[in-house]
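Example noted here:
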Amino acid sequence: MSTVQDSVPLNASNTPSVTTSAVLNLNHGTVSILVIWVYEYAITFDDEITFLRDSKWSIVKIIYLVCRYLMFPFVITNTFHYLQLGLTLEECKIYFQFELFAGGIIIYCAELMFLVRTYALWQRSKAALLIILVNFSAFLIPMLATAALYGSGDTSE
């Protein structure tokens, strides 16, 4: 009868673990997304400057700018977070808090832009506004509650 002690141990240096493989794939995916994202910014930047220069300032334009340009530090921070190994607990918490805050703001602004466009499509109808506000509240309240509960998790040792 064979026991665990009698079995031949696997050579860890020759056999990559599933975790190592997953981390490498995640790192390649993260860098790929970053490259595609920077490329998209590079090819649309001149059109964006024209748009910003020629249109009047409004709250929707400010929401668009926050959504568009907060993504830059969010993606960069996310990339550095995933590519750095051996972070301390405090460093991980700082990365996590920024990613949670910035990601929430980006989602909030994107959702708000969609709702403003929907309101405009319905020709600023009061009934449409009421439905939009109820739906937005139904979206926002659970999102804030989840973010607050998730972000306040106890990570003490």
